[in-house]
Amino acid sequence: MTDVVLAISGLAKRFGGLRVSDGITLDVVRNELHALIGPNGAGKTTLINQLQGTLLPDAGRIVFEHHDITTEAVHRRALRGIARSFQITSVIPSFTSCQNVALAVQGRLGHSFRFWKPARADPDLLAPAREALALVGLSDSADVPADQLSHGQRRQLEIAMALAMNPKLLLLDEPMAGMGRNEAATLIRLLKQLKGRYTIVMIEHDMDAVFSLADRVSVLVSGRLLATGTPLEIRNDPKVLTAYLGTKQQQQ
To answer: Is the pTM of this model over 0.85?
Structure first.
């Protein structure tokens, strides 16, 4: 039997008269890498925001590991194992890589965030932080301040912070945004290593990355789910070619 980790049914969200999620129904299977693609304004980030809890849907249901989390707060979802990286990196520039990840470990353990200084020196936090950095290939940059990292390294750091939460579901919002070819290649190698170990939902505009990484792909257009299938099925879907991929491939 298929092990469904995340079940989305009839999800709807409006901003004024604009429907940004229009009856989305979708299942995500344990340990798959599920890519969300579609043109700008299709509602991809809005969907991720509803999964994380920063936006609540107007209608529909989100079930995570058999728990209805539709109206749960962000911190409750994080405690259930939902972690996220953003389009724009969200690290503390003056903290080292290790200290940034230590804060994520601190949050997972339920320690207070009122005092950052202990998190910067506590070996119980720094040890698992260094493990997460090793997993993403940043061991050599553990003691480097985040503002001295390259853009690609900062994205790796943000993924390390998400992994430090011991996620059951990892939400990645355009992890390769703004990267050069070499940095993107490094991140693709990292995601290939994580694939199969974590359940990942990823928004990405780099189609080469999507089709080389994803187990399944869902296409959103104007807030609606147009198609879901394997990369090969999506590549050859006439509806997808007309609505999105045909234009995208011409641009490339």
So the answer is: yes
